[in-house]
């Protein structure tokens, strides 16, 4: 039976703490190595557990939301791994290292409103090979080759779904809904959802895990 893993919160991305560890955020040895090779998530499409990928910034309730969602989904449904990226550049580097093409997407990406556009640009680049919308980043690896060569275009990526989580509704949430239904869909090819509470986020994630 798979071990239950608790997500850590410092660094990009993070290792996990075993279930015997109290629910707290544990420092990762990668915390000071944001520029080093750090792609340690299970490869999408290899039959491993689904992944929750967080790139929400450090808003007031980010830590609590991440822990709650991880344990709630794990207890109610199936094993799931959780990884936190503290900036969109780290997420993009991870995504570029993942297989493209003939893969089964297994990652649900949860982003804040400020991170939504850069993350969508990264997904667009992974799907199409067009990196013109990305910020300059000397540490970003080259996109992995589409496998098998000649696969459908746009290519399938590690990302199964994208959710924009706006836990403190404001005028930004209105903009998020509009962007998700227009530019977000066009860039990512995904039906992007916007959630305004942890309860709505949990429902959305469970729906994707089905």
Automatic annotation (TrEMBL):
Annotated stretches, region: Disordered: 10-29
Protein name, as recorded: Uncharacterized protein
């Amino acid at each position: 039976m798979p071990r239950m893993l608790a997500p850590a919160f410092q660094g990009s991305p993070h290792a996990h703490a075993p279930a015997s560890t109290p629910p707290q955020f544990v420092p990762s040895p990668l915390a000071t190595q944001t520029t080093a090779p750090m792609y340690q998530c299970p490869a999408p499409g290899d039959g491993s557990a689904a992944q929750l990928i967080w790139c929400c910034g450090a808003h007031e309730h980010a830590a609590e939301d991440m822990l709650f969602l991880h344990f709630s989904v794990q207890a109610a449904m199936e094993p799931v791994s959780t990884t936190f990226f503290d900036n969109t550049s780290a997420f993009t580097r991870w995504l570029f290292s993942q297989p493209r093409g003939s893969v089964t997407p297994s990652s649900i990406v949860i982003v804040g409103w400020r991170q939504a556009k850069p993350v969508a640009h990264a997904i667009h680049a992974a799907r199409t090979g067009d990196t013109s919308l990305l910020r300059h980043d000397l540490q970003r690896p080259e996109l992995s080759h589409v496998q098998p060569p000649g696969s459908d275009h746009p290519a399938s990526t590690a990302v199964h779904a994208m959710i924009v989580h706006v836990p403190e509704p404001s005028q930004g949430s209105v903009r998020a809904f509009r962007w998700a239904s227009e530019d977000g869909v066009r860039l990512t090819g995904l039906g992007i959802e916007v959630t305004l509470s942890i309860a709505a986020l949990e429902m959305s994630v469970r729906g994707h895990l089905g």
